[in-house]
C-alpha cells in the first residue's frame, strides 16, 4: 500500500486531509494555549484570549524574572541523563531477554512489569529517606536514578519486542564470522533496531521530562525541573495563566524539536532491505 | 558525569562550610507572585545579619503540605516555613514545631502586631509556635451596577441574599438562556468558606457541635436549595474552584461571590467601579466569615534556631511586612504597615475591617485538614448533585470532628 | 509473532566451549537493570506493603501498630473503594482502545509519503510532550461552562442549546477526562506503531500488489501481523500506565463532583498524601496492584494464545 504511486488529488483526500484533521485535534488546545500566553492578562476573563494587543511579555518574564532558563537546563540534564542511563541498561537487558533462554526469564520480565504497577505516590516516602541517607537529595543524579527506574521496565519490554523482530540468524551469522556477542550486538542488532531505540529513547525522554512527583520530592532548590517550576505558577489564590501557558508552550518545544531531528532515523534501519537482503 | 558533578558539588559545599562556619536558614514558602520578590528581602536580611544565609525555596502551593510532611518524616525538614493554622494541630502532634514564646516575649516587634493575632494563632496546648505574617478576611463581592439597575439593596440577611440572587439571575440577551447567575458558589476544595458563611453563623451551630441540629441542617439545605431549586449558581458550581468563581465574576457571569482582598485589584482592573464589597449576610441570627491566616514558624529540627527566628521576625517587622504583602497581595500584620496601606482600594480594606468582628478560624483540631481537603468538598458536591441529603452531609462532618 | 514469546524453546545452541559464557552472559547483561530497579522500586514497594498491615498515620509517626489485615477488610467494606474500582475499569476500558485506534490511524497516515510528513510527525507528539498539569488546566479551561471553547464551539454549531458544565456534572465528568487523556496519550501509540511499521519489508507489499490484494487486505494480512507484537507490548505498557495515572484527574476535578471521577490510584493518593493515612492508602495501593496484575496476567495469557 505504501508503494503504489498514488495520484496527488487522491493522496490529498486519503492522506493530507485526514492528517490535517488529526493535527487540528492535536494542536487545537496547544494553539489556544499559545493564544492565551500572548493575550493581555487583564482582559483574559472578560473577553477571552485574543490577538489584539498581543505581546511576548510573558515569555520575557518567564526567562528574566522567573528563571525558567535554569529550570529548562535542569530538565534537560535530567532527561538526557535518564535517556543515557535508561537506554544503555535496557538495551543490554532487552538483548539478553530477546536472544537467550535462561532460568527465571519469565519471572524477571514480569518483575519489571510489576514494578510499574504500584502507585508511585506511596513509594515517595521510603525513596525520600533512601536518597537522604545516600546524600543524593537535590541532585541531578537522584532524579536520573529515580526516573530511570520508572523508564527501564517499559523500555526493556519495548526493546524486546523490537529486537524479536530481527531474525536471530543475522547475529548468529555475524558470530560465525568471528564477532563476539557484544560485537554482534553493536554491529548488527543495534543498527537494525535503531527505530525501536529511537522510539524508546523518545519515550524515556518524554517520561522524565514530564515527571513531577519525583522532581518535587527529590529535587529542591538546586535542581528544579520545569514541571515543578510550572507548578509554582499555580498559586493559592491566583493562577498565572499567561506565564503558565508560556511555560507549557516552551516546555513542549525541546521534545518536539528533538523528535523533528530524529524522526528520519525512525525510517532508516530496517526499511533499507537489510533484513531480507 | 553525574557522579563527578556530585563530587564537585560536595567539595564546594565542604569548602564553603570551612570558609565561614556560619549558619544557613532553609526557608520554605509559597507565593502567588511569580517574579521572585523574596530575593530582595533575603538580600536585605543577609546584609543586615552577616553570617546568616537564607535559602528560600518556593514550593508549589498544591503540594506544599504534602511536601512539608514528607520532608519532616524523611528527616530533611526546612528550618523555617510559611504555615497555616489548619496544619498546626498536625505539626504539633508530629513534634515538628519549635515554641517561640520566649523569643516573642523578648522581641520588641511583638507589640506592633495587630491586636489578637497572636491569641488567634496560639496552639491548643497553650504554646505559641506561629508568628503571623499576613492575613485576609472573606467578604461579599457584588456588582454595584447590577444592583442599581435592578433597584436592589446590599443583602443584610440570608433571606435578602436569596431574594437578591434570584433577581440577579437572568437572561440579559434575550435568547431564552440564563447568562448571569446571582452567586458564584465555590463547590470544589476551598469552598467551605462559602458554605460556612451561610451555615455556621446560625444560632448554636458550629463545626464541632450543633451541626446536626435543625438550624445546622437548614444551613446546608439553604445552599442546596439555592443551587437545585432556585438555580442561582452557575451549573458548573459543584466543580468550581477559585479561578472559576473569580473568572466568572470578572466576566460578568455572576453578580456576587465571596472572596478576600487578594483578588480585589484584579477585579478592579476588569470591572472598575462596577465591583463593590460588603460583609457577608447574617444567616439565622449570626454572621460568620473566614479568617484567612498565614504565619511563619521555626521547625524543631532547625540547626540554628536563633538564626531561623531572626529571619521570620524580620518578615513580620515594620516595613518588611509591608513589602512582603505587596508581593502577596494580602494585608500586613504590623499595625504601622497597615495604617498607610494603599495597595488596595479603600472600599475593600473597609469591608475587610468591618468583617473582622465575626471572622473565625476553623477549629484547632486534627480533623480540620481532612474537613477542608476531602470531606467537605466531596460531601458538598454530592449534596449539590443530589447524591446525598443535607442531613447526611452534616452528619458526615459531625462524625469527622467527633473522632 | 515477534513478542511475548517467553516460553518458546531456544533454537539449537552453539557447541560446548561457549556454554558457560552463554549461561552467565544473560544474567550479567540483566543485572544492572535488575539491581537498580530492585533497590529503587522493589524495596520501597515491600516497605509500603508492610505499612499496609499497620495503623500508620503520618502525623502520628510514633504510633505504628500492627493490625494485620484490618486495612484490607476496611477497604473491601468501603463504598468508595468499589466506586473507584468501577471507574478504574471504565477508565481503562475506554481510554486505551481510544488511544490505540487514534494512534494506529495516525501512524498509518504518518507512514505514507506526503510533502510535510516530517513536520507532521514532529507536531503530533506535542500533547505527549506537555506536562500533565498544564494539559489538565488547559482542558479545564476548554471545558469551562462560562467561557470554555468547547461549549462555545458546540453552541455555535447548534449542537447544544445551553452550555454544559462538563466537569461539574457527574454524568459527563469521567467522559470529559477520558477525552483529555486520549488526547494526551495517542501520540505514544502513534510513535510506537510508526517505529513498528518500519520492520515490515516493502517486498511483502510489492508481492501483494502484484497479486492484486486490496488495501484493506494488505492491511489485514501484512500490516497488522507485522506490528501486532509492538501493539501488544504498547497496549500492555499503556494499560499499566493509564491505570496508574491520576494526575490529570486530580487537577481537573480532584475526583469530584462527589466521587464521580475517583479511580483507585487517586483514592490511594488522597488517602496517603492528603489525609496522611499511609496504612489505609498502602492497603488500597496493594489491592489495586493485585487487581492490575490480574488484568495483566490475563492479557498476557490471551495474547500468548493469540500469538501461537
UniProtKB/TrEMBL annotation, chain A:
Coiled-coil ranges per the record?
A: none
Which residues span the membrane?
12-35, 76-97, 109-134, 140-163, 184-206, 241-262
> PROSITE patterns recorded for this chain?
ABC_TM1
Instruction: List locations, semicolon-separated.
Output: Cell membrane
User: Can you cite an annotated GO cellular component?
Assistant: plasma membrane
- Protein's UniProt keywords contain Ribosomal protein: no
What's its membrane topology? Answer: Multi-pass membrane protein
Q: Where's the ABC transmembrane type-1 domain?
A: 72-262
Q: Give one Pfam family.
A: BPD_transp_1
Its predominant location is: membrane
Can you supply a Gene Ontology BP term from the record? Answer: transmembrane transport
Entry keyword set:
Cell membrane, Membrane, Transmembrane, Transmembrane helix, Transport
Q: Which family does it belong to?
A: Belongs to the binding-protein-dependent transport system permease family.
Q: What is this protein called?
A: Carbohydrate ABC transporter permease
Source organism per UniProt: Mangrovicoccus algicola
From TrEMBL, chain B:
The answer to keyword Transcription applying to this record is: no
- What keywords are assigned to this protein? Signal
Of the GO CC terms on this record, one is: periplasmic space
SUPFAM superfamilies assigned: Periplasmic binding protein-like II (SSF53850)
List, alphabetically, the Gene3D superfamilies matched.
Answer: Periplasmic binding protein-like II (3.40.190.10)
Signal sequence range: 1-21
Location(s) in or outside the cell: Periplasm
Work out whether the entry's keyword set contains Signal. Answer: yes
One Pfam family name from the record?
A: SBP_bac_1
Q: Which CDD domains match?
A: PBP2_TMBP_like
| Entry similarity comment | Belongs to the bacterial solute-binding protein 1 family.
Kindly provide the name given to this protein in its UniProt entry.
Answer: Sugar ABC transporter substrate-binding protein
From TrEMBL, chain C:
What UniProt keywords are attached to this protein's entry?
A: Cell membrane, Membrane, Transmembrane, Transmembrane helix, Transport
Q: Which GO terms describe its biological process?
A: transmembrane transport
Keyword 4Fe-4S recorded: no
From the record, give the transmembrane residue ranges: 24-46, 89-110, 122-142, 173-197, 278-300
> Which stretches make up the ABC transmembrane type-1 domain?
85-299
Q: Which GO terms describe its cellular component?
A: plasma membrane
**Which locations, inside or outside the cell, does it occupy?**
Cell membrane
Q: Which SUPFAM superfamilies match?
A: MetI-like
Enumerate the InterPro entries for this protein.
MetI-like, MetI-like_sf
Keyword Membrane assigned:
yes
Report how it sits in the membrane.
Multi-pass membrane protein
* Pfam families noted in UniProt: BPD_transp_1
Q: Into which family does the record put it?
A: Belongs to the binding-protein-dependent transport system permease family.
UniProt name for this protein: Sugar ABC transporter permease
Give the source lineage, highest ranks first.
Answer: Bacteria, Pseudomonadati, Pseudomonadota, Alphaproteobacteria, Rhodobacterales
